[in-house]
Amino acid sequence: MRRDVALKVLRGHKQELEGRYGVTRLGIFGSVARDEAADNSDVDVVVEMAPDLFGKVSLKEELEKILGAKVDLVRYWRRMNHYLKRRIDKDAYYV
């Protein structure tokens, strides 16, 4: 999936995801964000939202439906893995 396609799809669903899951920030990182994704690549999605395990699982499933691809979903928060946080900060595009 190309970066512009992923961002357009997420932008079109952002308000709905904010209302349903309390997402306050939504973006992509990784190979899709760098426009290096292969046809079978997953989409790395980063969100800021309150901690909610069941909400995160439901959000992941919904993102996979709307993007039509496997999604790796990461909740961005202050005390997350420092290495992953740096990767996200370097690559992320937000809608």
Report on this model:
- With 95 residues, the chain is an alpha+beta fold.
- The protein has one domain (3-94): Beta Polymerase, domain 2 (2-Layer Sandwich).
- The protein is 46% helix and 19% strand.
- It contains three helices and four strands.
- The chain has helices spanning 3-21, 53-67, 82-91, and strands at 25-29, 43-48, 71-75, 93-94.
- It has a four-stranded mixed beta sheet with strand order 3-2-1-4, with helices on both faces.
- Strand 2, helix 2 (53-67) and strand 3 (71-75) form a beta-alpha-beta unit.
- The longest helix is centred in the N-terminal third of the chain and has 19 residues, at 3-21.
- The two termini are 16 Å apart.
CATH class term: Alpha Beta
Low-pLDDT residue spans: none
* Fraction of residues in β-strands: 15-25%
Name the structural class: alpha+beta
- The topology string of helices and strands comes to HEEHEHE
